[in-house]
Design a protein that fits this description.
The complex is a heterodimer of chains A (139) and B (76). Chain A has 139 residues and is mainly α. Chain A contains five helices and no strands. Chain B is mostly helical. Classes of the chains: A mainly alpha (139), B mainly alpha (76).
């Protein structure tokens, strides 16, 4: 009886039970975090996109003006607002989303498959839109 | 404080606690107040709507940032 107990104890000691891999949980958290970040990024991107659309509409309905000239006018009238929404916000979004992509890429073992792109497509799209906004602002 | 205050469903953060509901309510009240303020100063319906949508997007952006920061349990 005592021997059986000892054997059972020995088995428990030699076979530690691991319910799930820590790495797997980290990857799951990173993906959820990246999706949450992409949602916040969409909201912050929607403001400059809305302004650009309004300025485009203005340039269509007001002859002699262009998107760029309207943008320069906005820049001179609303200096801080344009700086926040057209420079600081896109730069921060690019950095945050790039870090999220990098983290997922390394945690998933540097994959070269299309499935990886399927996971991070929203973050890539946000980076592309942010770059576009920066280009329009810098013209 | 007991986190999380919000949970994400699609592109919206839904309140998951009393604090979350208070933040959402404050956002809605501010949106209504800003609509009335903009409406009082604008000259046409399109003027009101354009300025209000802009304000609504800013409120949504700030709300989503607050919700994101309070929707997870931060590790110490």
């Amino acid at each position: 009886m005592e021997k059986e107990n000892f054997e059972k104890k020995l088995k428990d000691m030699t076979k530690p039970e691991i319910q799930g891999l820590k790495h797997e949980a980290m990857l799951e958290n990173a993906i959820i975090n990246a999706k949450d970040k992409s949602v916040v990024s969409w909201w912050w991107l929607s403001v400059p996109v809305f302004i650009i659309l309004m300025l485009m509409m203005k340039s269509i309905f007001m002859p002699g003006t262009t998107l760029i000239s309207n943008m320069h006018e906005l820049e001179s009238n609303q200096k801080y607002m344009s700086l926040i929404f057209f420079l600081i916000s896109p730069l921060v979004l690019i950095i945050l989303n790039a870090f999220s992509i990098r983290k997922i890429y390394f945690l998933s073992g540097s994959p070269k498959s299309i499935n990886f792109l399927g996971t991070i497509w929203a973050n890539i799209l946000i980076i592309a839109f942010s770059v576009l906004i920066l280009i329009i602002y810098s013209l | 404080m007991n986190f999380p205050w919000f949970k994400r469903i699609g592109i919206f953060f839904i309140p998951a606690s009393v604090a979350g509901w208070i933040i959402l309510l404050a956002g809605c009240v501010f949106a209504v107040f800003s609509f009335m303020d903009i409406d009082g100063r604008s000259h046409s319906v399109s003027d009101t709507l354009m300025n209000f949508v802009f304000m609504l997007l800013i409120i949504g952006a700030v709300y989503s940032l607050v919700a994101y920061l309070t929707s997870r349990v931060w590790k110490k």
